[in-house]
Specification:
Homoserine O-acetyltransferase (chains A, B); Rossmann fold; cytoplasm (chains A, B); acyltransferase (chains A, B); homoserine O-acetyltransferase activity (chains A, B); eight-stranded mixed beta sheet; alpha/beta; nine-stranded mixed beta sheet; 33% helix; homodimer; methionine biosynthesis (chains A, B)
Chain lengths: 641, 641
């Protein structure tokens, strides 16, 4: 895909124009910083969309990434584009007709909220000249000047911008400022906190520090901490800025030159890390030796060179070098834990549900990192949905229109809830009224449905489109049940999630390492056994994770198959699960009822219940009626002491 | 793996000491450069190991990578380490007891051969002060001064180092200098040209420009051109150097300060690209927040930061900034073609055989790029062996001891040849004398061996350890036969290559896109059909690529299996290929003779010959004796008009 097709990455839509709908509030109580020191007062610049409802229960906090700002979306048709227009707006996945959306500029930034470019004087000139009456602790002031313009104000005496003396801040400090904003707006608990990349770090920091702060946490293209590789790139970027001859220890605001070269180089480096290899090839290979010429002293021998020169220079007109250092350092210090136990400690008390999304070609925040978080949340038995979206767009994907169209529905579904009792099952009526077809179950699924008691916690491995889980929920509507699916096919993950079910993106051939012993009352493997490579390993895992397990499978010793094989001497075929050619059947294993019984006995497993069907003849087969011959389908409920 | 365990990457062994065994020769004829301009005379600095034999047939050219030099290996036990000690030496894979090994510093470098740090005056001071009599066209001079020292010589008038005015050179220009060295040493044709990374570019450039220059081309961790991503990183690195305030347009040699900051930043960037993600995690994650403190102004907040600072600074003591620009630009301009047709044009006339090696975690020169070259060579019917080595060490792997131990034998085998008639089959005696066990064939393989005519070209898909190909070669020793294997398991690739056979690393489920129509007389799929996912696609490909195809497979309608299945009602088992549990059999497909016949008929294929065996009873089964029931093994020779 060409980046030109989707001008949705941050760079193509930003400008250094003033933020026309930005609001500003001053927090006059000092902010004690995590790493020491304090900021005497904080100016917070933010934008909002929609209306806060009467009980302040519909507020969504949107957190921006390192080079972003408060302008997440347009406010009207004539407004300049926002960086998440594909996700936020009237009728969009984050529906501003329904929710009150808040997006503040982060602490340490250069787009309105206090940052290194701000004056460090104790007396705040702003306060003295504000047309509004000062309110103790809080002041409202709208500053129409461009943020960069505001930064270049001259001051006498001590009134210099912080520059590189701006204290070292953390993601936690950013969260504290956002919390003050929430207080100011009268928001006690967010409906959701949403962010990608650095924004995802903020969302995760919020819930780890304030476990009850939100109903939902949506963390996209993010991680519990940067990889060492990403960290290395940030170190180099900062070195480039800080060794720029015009950096002057960060005190460059009143000088004729700014460290634009170093900042441009830092940005070029960032750019490569945001793009996938495939995206770069598509964009630059066709005219590799034909650079577009732009006004720049940077090298322009190759097309990628002129692109980087352009992007680097453009960035320096709208972003402050000290801010870049401050924010990248905050991101580099962010560390929720490098192993499962530490992550579990981090999220242990969270009461929210989670949605995590990663992108297959994102090598800066690789999917494996989202998976670390998902594994910890799963082991803690938190409500979580996780999807790794197939995409060519690299880390940028979370901002690209095409990818937003794919993962937006997950966000929308996660936000959809007509009642405040989280976890209560929606009725079948709700699903139908949303336009989904009523659930149609197979015979085996009907049997499984019958034997799962109300109130059970159920894990469905290879849950398909979630039809069985949805049927279980419908059957016991009114009784809270912990239901979770595991799937590996993207369309199935999306379909299951769109039913309002928790589902995680997982390859069963890797076992179930995310789950803990006896985590679920029932673990189901429905019509999936024949697709599994590591059968014994998976059965062992099911018996570990579930107090009981239910497996259903087609019986490859079914009479019709034996007859077909013996008479035709060919790979046997019959209707249903058996109706494939030998050379392209999706089936990987060919279990028979007798084989499975033998294996289970060998594994020391107890069979608590056996249900057999000849589905092709719509006939139930008794256990003493030679099911190995007469049944084409088996359902076994098992456990191991 | 920790980089500290294998101090074999370039950085840990380099020093800025003089190269004690370096020899120098002057080429006084101007060198016309590919991109225009010329160099009036060239000093070439090189090292040699071993002795050139009487007919000059044992010379091997070793080409170094961007920050390397002529010191590829120690000359004696007391010598400083060489960058390829794990590959070159007495009794090593490149055996200096047997071969005459030559390693020159590249044109544009800063380790003895003419580069940007050299004087650009027409009069060469060196020549005037040489103790030796000038020989027309060539002068010998040994320069004991350190190369960097030599670069800082002062000169009056026009005698300035080239600096950034050094003409733009290409890999082709480097090759021209090496060619002059070959002439000087009396070498008409190399036994082999070997190189990794940029050294691989040189090897490929040699053979594309001079198709008869060598018997063997060995190209490791390399590409037909850089990816756009790698190119982008190089552009940023050069921008960092060129914007260093001390760069002075490249004329810094007589100044108190050099552009060490920019060069260090360039090197830091390179470092990250040479390491795999896993290697960085192993090295830096455990003490991420505990940097070792070194004397540096670069950021040292994180362990990766102090490492990069150390590596960056160390590099500046031994490498020249202008050289870095010159060499990286040459690498960036290198482009043998971005598509198969162009690559085929490039290598069309080559008469050498090829060995290519890539490394799984190398993301700078990813394996897919080696595969592009392999595909072009294969379509040209060149002799080629290709292995993608599983490694955690990233691009650095080609210099790491552990990985050299894995791929070294491939190099050694490719160089081993007791006769100069390339392509003539080695006798079975040769193989046995090397300590390999005589080839033991299965019954099916014996049948296949019988029906392949002498002189056929044979492609064996899923060739295992190469036993069938070796047997074919032995059977027809004395008759040149084009034999090639395809395998996907690393140990099989290595075993097959160690028999002196060509083998390429390929997943048959992707078809055979590398090969052209009717490329081989016979394509064999021996005891592999049952492991293939895309059966029809592969059969189609075999029939396209081979004038005839031979498939052998176990017959899953064999009597014993039918009886077992019918009586026990379990997944059938029998001896041999059928002796697996249903739940972990490696078999993916379960063909029967009847099924395969039906499929072939459907595909319009003619069966030219059918051979059936009951191997378990060592009994041949006639085609009219119901082989579908009585045979456990089938061999079919087929073709399609």
């Amino acid at each position: 895909m060409s980046l030109n097709e989707d001008c949705s990455s941050t760079d193509d839509i930003r400008s250094d124009e003033p933020l026309s709908h930005a609001q500003t509030v001053w927090f006059n109580q000092p902010l004690l910083l995590e790493r020491g020191g304090q900021l005497p007062k904080i100016r917070c610049c933010y934008e909002t969309w929609g209306t806060l409802n009467a009980d302040a229960s519909n507020a969504i906090l949107v957190c921006h990434a390192v080079s972003g700002d408060s302008h997440a979306a347009r406010h009207n048709a004539n407004d300049q584009p926002g960086w998440w227009d594909g996700l936020i707006g009237p009728g969009m996945s984050i529906d501003t007709n329904q929710f009150f959306v808040v997006c503040p500029n982060v602490l340490g930034g250069c787009r309105g909220t206090t940052g290194p470019g701000d004056l460090r004087a104790e007396d705040d000139l702003e306060l003295a000249t504000s047309p509004n009456q000062p309110i103790p602790g809080v002041s409202i002031n709208s500053d129409e000047r461009s943020p960069l313009e505001a930064m270049s104000r001259q001051g006498g005496g001590d009134e210099r911008p912080y520059g590189a003396d701006f204290p070292r801040i953390t993601i936690g400090d950013m969260v504290e400022v956002q919390r003050r904003l929430a207080d100011h707006l009268g928001i006690v608990k967010w409906r959701a906190i949403v962010g990608g990349s650095l924004g995802g770090h903020q969302a995760l920091q919020w819930v780890s520090r304030y476990p009850n702060c939100t109903h939902t946490c949506i963390a996209i293209a993010t991680s519990p901490r940067l990889t060492s590789q990403a960290l290395g790139f940030d170190v180099i970027a900062r070195n480039a800025i800080q060794t720029d001859p015009h950096f002057h220890g960060g005190q460059y605001y009143d000088r004729p030159n700014r460290p634009v070269t170093g900042l441009a180089i830092a940005r070029m480096l960032g750019h490569i890390t945001y793009l996938s290899v495939a995206a770069m090839e598509a964009k630059f290979d066709p005219d590799r030796h034909d650079p577009r010429h732009i006004a720049s002293d940077f090298e322009q021998r190759f097309s990628v060179g002129s692109y980087l020169a352009h992007q680097g220079q453009k960035f320096t007109t709208r972003f402050d070098a000290n801010s870049y250092i401050t924010l990248s350092m905050a991101m580099d210090l962010f560390d929720l834990g490098g192993n499962r136990l530490k992550l579990m400690e981090t999220f242990d008390e969270c009461t929210c549900d989670f949605l995590l999304v990663s992108f297959s070609s994102d090598w800066l925040f690789p999917p494996a990192q989202s998976r670390e978080i998902v594994n910890a949340l799963t082991a803690l038995d938190k409500r979580v949905t996780y999807a790794e979206i197939t995409s060519d767009a690299g880390h940028d994907a979370f901002l690209i229109a095409r990818d937003m169209a794919t993962y937006g529905p997950l966000v929308q579904e996660r936000l959809r809830s007509s009642d405040t009792h989280r976890g209560v099952n929606l009725s079948a009526g709700d699903a139908v009224s949303k336009g989904q077809s009523p659930v149609q179950l197979t015979v085996a699924e009907e049997s499984i449905l019958e034997i799962i008691p109300a109130g059970s916690s159920v894990l469905d491995l290879g849950c398909g489109c979630g039809e069985l889980l949805a049927a279980i929920r419908d059957r016991h509507a009114g009784t809270p049940m912990r239901l979770m699916g595991v799937e590996v096919a993207q369309e199935n993950i999306l379909s299951t999630a769109m039913r309002g079910l928790d589902v995680i993106d997982y390859d069963l051939n890797n076992g179930l390492p995310a789950f803990i012993d006896d985590q679920f009352d029932v673990v189901v493997l429905n019509a999936t056994l024949q697709a599994v490579d590591n059968v014994v390993a998976l059965l062992e895992e099911m018996l570990r994770v579930g107090k009981k397990a239910i497996i259903s499978f087609p019986n490859f010793a079914y009479r019709a198959l034996r007859e077909d094989y013996v008479t035709r001497g060919r790979s046997p075929r019959a209707v249903g699960e058996f109706d494939f050619d030998w050379h392209d059947t999706p089936n990987r294993r060919f279990p028979t009822i007798a084989d499975v019984h033998d294996l289970l006995i060998e594994m020391g497993v107890t069979i608590d219940r056996e249900i057999y069907w000849d589905v092709s003849q719509a006939r139930h087969i008794d256990a003493d009626d030679d099911p190995n011959l007469n049944a084409d389908t088996a359902v076994l409920e098992i456990h191991r002491s």
